[in-house]
Structures are given as C-alpha cells and as structure tokens.
C-alpha cells in the first residue's frame, strides 16, 4: 500500500471521500432510478462535462462547467440535474475540493458500484465559473464530426470506439428528451443493453446482432453508436469481447476521461488503493496547564492482536518526558467501514483513537506511533516518513479551536428546537491587544436548480465571558447557527501587529468532539 505524507489536506480528503465517503451510499449496489441507474446518470455527466476539452489549446475539460451548459440540446436529460442535485445534497464540497472533483469521484463510484473496475482517482480540479464550448457529441452528427470531436477531447478513433462502449454499458436514452430517437411510447428509458451492470454485454450483443441499443438499431440518422462501433470494421469491438480487456480498457480510458482538465490544472497522484496509515488532524484544548490532543490513526489490514501507542517529543524536540508522560495507548479502536471501492479490493481497516494530556510548558513538537503486533516482532514505527507528525507552535498551539470549550447546543422549547454550535477559539495573547475573526464555508447551495455554488459568511468572534483568559490564552467565541451546514472555518487572530491564521478548519469533523449541551425552557 502507498504511504501518505502528512499534512496534505487535499490528498487526505480525497482518500477519505473515496474509501469512507457518503457517496458510497448512493452508488453501492448500482441502484435503479427511473428506469435507468444513478450510476448511468453520474457517468454521463462526467463525460459531457469533460467534452469541453480542447487538446489544441489546453482549455476546458472536467471542470463542472456543465452547471452552466444545461440549456443546450446536447445536455438535455433529467439525469444531469439529478446528478448535480445528488452531489450538492451530499455536502462534501470544500474550499479545496469542488464540484468538478465530485463529478469525477461520481464516475469512479458509478463504475465500481455497478460491478466495473476501479478507476484510479486523482483530485485537484478547478471549478469553472462560466460555460465552455458546445462540443458534446450528438447522435445525429456524422462519423467525421465525431472523430474530430473526440480528437479535440484527446482520444483517437480506437479510443473513441472503446470509450463509447464503456459509457453505453450503463443506462440508456430517455423518450421525453429524445422523442425522435425513442419512438416506442411504451418505453421511458430505452436501455443500451439488457444488463444494468457495468459489463461488456453492450459489446457482445452488438456483435451478435441482438443489440437493443437505440443508437444502433433506431432511426437511421441517429445511429451514432453503429457508425462509431463499426468504423474500424468491428476490430475494436471484437477485442472488447474479452471481459478482462473490456475492464482494463475502460478503467484506463475512464481514468484519462476524468483526468482531462485544463492544462493549467494540476491533479494529485492517482489514488489506486487506500493509504496504509492516515491520521485524523490533531485537535486541541487548553485547560489548567495542559493541552488535550485528540487524534486517530487509520491502519489498513491491522493484525488482530495489534496495540497502537502514540508518542510525542516536547517543544525542544528532544525526548524529555514530563511526569505527566509522553506516550499513550489508544483509548479505543473502531473498524473502518470501507466504501465499495475498498471492499472490492478486499481491504479492511481499523481506526485507533487517542486523547493525550500534554504538559503545556514542555508542550509538543511532533508525535508518531508504534504498532505492536504482540507476536514477538519489532514494533512498526509510523512516523510520517521519518519526520514525525510535526506540530508547529505557531499556528497550531497559538491559535486553535478549543474542542473542550466549544459546545454543541440544543435549545428546546415546547414548540421548537434550535441547534447552535458555539465555537471557542483560543489565542495566545492578552485580551487588550488581541482581536479575532472567522469566515464559515457552507457547501450546500440554496439554489433549486444548478449552478450549485458554495457560500461563505463572516461570523464575528467576541471575547468569551464564560472562558476568562488562562495560561496566556484569550478565548473568543462565535455562534454557528445553521447547524450542520457549515463545514469549514477560516480563522484569523491579530495579536498586536502579528497575524495568525488557520485555514480550512474542518468544523464538521471537530464538532463530533464538542461537549453536547441541552437547554430546555
Ligand atoms: C458520439 C458520442 C456519444 C453520443 C452521441 C452519446 C449520446 C447519448 C445520448 C443521446 C444519451 C441519452 C441521454 C438521456 O436520455 O438522458 C446518452 C446516454 C448515456 N451516455 Fe452517451 N453519447 C456518447 C458518448 C458517451 C461516452 C463517451 C460516455 C461515457 C464514457 C457516455 C455515457 C453515457 C451514459 C452512461 C448514458 C446513460 C445515461 C442515463 O441512463 O441516464 N456517452 N448518450
């Protein structure tokens, strides 16, 4: 398995969405939706969004510009809007992982969820803010036009044939949207082949002349699949009769498809398997001369007898161990529920949790782990490639969301209940010369139709009366009222003329650790 160098917020978020994310629930088992499948809709939107790419000038590609292109005939279909609605409702957009990354992730889940191969996933796409060119192929266009459109997208003729087969193994053509193609009024969605699965039935039925693909056997002008599939005398289609070849070819082409992005965009290395070890970003609280640090380590395929120890070095970076200790065994371990992507790889994992008490004077400069399999073998040291997981005093212990002082508050009256997150921010500095502010990121768009774009709002931070200054820290507080919808915070503190910032603090994850307060009136 591959190793992960912390910190890398984009890569760890991508791993998390791929192996533990909520998208799994919508894709696992290839669920049906209105005579097609959710997966078919997700795969089609990924292709249509990518279709704006132009290899000649490096513009366009999978950039979520589809959100601004839905009024075009080439993008008709309820599946487009439904897919974007799915992605918006998941609430997984972050300041660094936008709709384009989610459309690409949707394609990966779509394929594997319907029994297809794992398409290695990379993140880092950039969302467009305007429409791209109208370059999605349409069924009534001739072969020459299609060859040229695929060339512009970066695919040669053989690749075009295979990519269309890989796409049209899922779903079909909707009569309401294409009444001139689907003329049989008893059919809502005319599926391309007889199986909803991601398999090569589309190929075998075409070669056996038993295909029901309406873009092969339908009205002459719109037989685009026939023109494409037969364009090389069926040589490519013959090769795809081997299900291994079909699977490998589709995985490679679909990976290229979702990685087709403007030339200015840099994607992460592909994630083909979960990282062997990933940590939960450490969270802190300060009280009575001690820091509490909460973190966790996910271990893929741990030994059943394994025990995991957290160790840390003090502020000076040496091994001076205060009487309060500098190592700790995990307080609990939980099996990780892997998504279908991890399950088909036959992998399991556990997450080992830690809540360390750290003397605030000697403090902490880095931490690492030891995994002891308790079988006589040497412990495995997980130290982030040798450097340890480094905690910089500034900003990590100068400005942080204090997770024990923050609160999840449920206010209940006889007629309503209201949930509020009280965020408490600790700043190393005296109250007289310190100010703080934060902005909150909400992934959910209130729009009823695309484009769905996230919003940010400013939330003022005031001196917290209930948490008076202590140990050099001043505490500020602000309320997040739209509970559950704010997922990330950017926080700034000014101490005298020095400015500290914490960007992309994951409030969604951290608030799981906030004390829960119920107020009934
Ligand atoms: C010349 C190229 C292509 C043409 C003309 C074409 C045309 C179409 C049309 C007209 C539909 C029906 C859409 C609807 O009724 O909602 C469709 C569906 C679909 N297409 Fe294509 N397509 C092409 C290439 C591709 C490629 C390369 C992929 C992906 C790799 C793809 C994936 C899909 C999928 C998954 C569906 C089913 C959608 C659903 O059931 O909701 N298509 N295509």
From TrEMBL:
Oxidoreductase among keywords: yes
Enzyme Commission numbers on file: 1.11.1.-
Listed GO biological process terms: cellular response to oxidative stress; hydrogen peroxide catabolic process; response to reactive oxygen species
Transmembrane segments: none
Pfam families to which the protein is assigned, alphabetical: peroxidase
PROSITE patterns in alphabetical order: PEROXIDASE_4
The protein's enzyme class: oxidoreductase
A GO MF label: metal ion binding
Residues annotated as domain Plant heme peroxidase family profile: 100-171
Keywords tagged on the record: Heme, Iron, Metal-binding, Oxidoreductase, Peroxidase, Signal
Matches recorded under SUPFAM superfamilies: Heme-dependent peroxidases
Family (UniProt): Belongs to the peroxidase family.
PANTHER family: HEME PEROXIDASE (PTHR31356:SF53), THYLAKOID LUMENAL 29 KDA PROTEIN, CHLOROPLASTIC-RELATED (PTHR31356)
Protein name from the UniProt record: Peroxidase
Lineage: Eukaryota, Fungi, Dikarya, Basidiomycota, Agaricomycotina
